[in-house]
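General statements about sequence and structure are easier to judge against a single worked case. Part of our work consisted of pairing the sequence of a single chain with a tokenised description of its backbone. The amino acid sequence and the backbone structure tokens for this protein are reproduced below.

***
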Amino acid sequence: MSTSAHRHRHETALHVTVDREGGIDIGTCERIASRINAALDTFPEPYTLEVESAGLDRPLTKPSDYDRFSGRDAKVVTTLAIENAKTHRGKLGGVRGTNVVLTRERGELLIPLAVVKSANLEYDVRADLQRAKQREKNQNQ
């Protein structure tokens, strides 16, 4: 879970992003929002609350995220140029030592975790449909 709070004019905006293995549904977001609202009822200032799942293009913030989403498409932005670029796209291969493994058409790229500025999944509708068809096929066998 990550949180951020920002002051806008006369109220505070609280933003909460939740994530867990298997994903988050709307009911879970509603339950979390209800609990937070109950806790904030004693807060004297007006506020807005947003609770959401990490989403299809979720950020990858911990080394374990790269392993968890291994095989998925991702974009990794680095602070230093690697192979003359700071933005890299490919399939995640997890973490090997202190490097993120990214597989591209032209081969495997090892990106040191220390130079990762940001990283997020990239949602591919076709790949998702293919995975769903494969799961359905496997269940029917």
Observations:
- The chain has two domains: 2-53, 63-124.
- The chain is about 25% helix and 45% strand.
- The helical segments are 26-40, 63-68, 125-139.
- Strands lie at 2-8, 11-18, 47-53, 73-82, 85-96, 99-104, 107-112, 116-121.
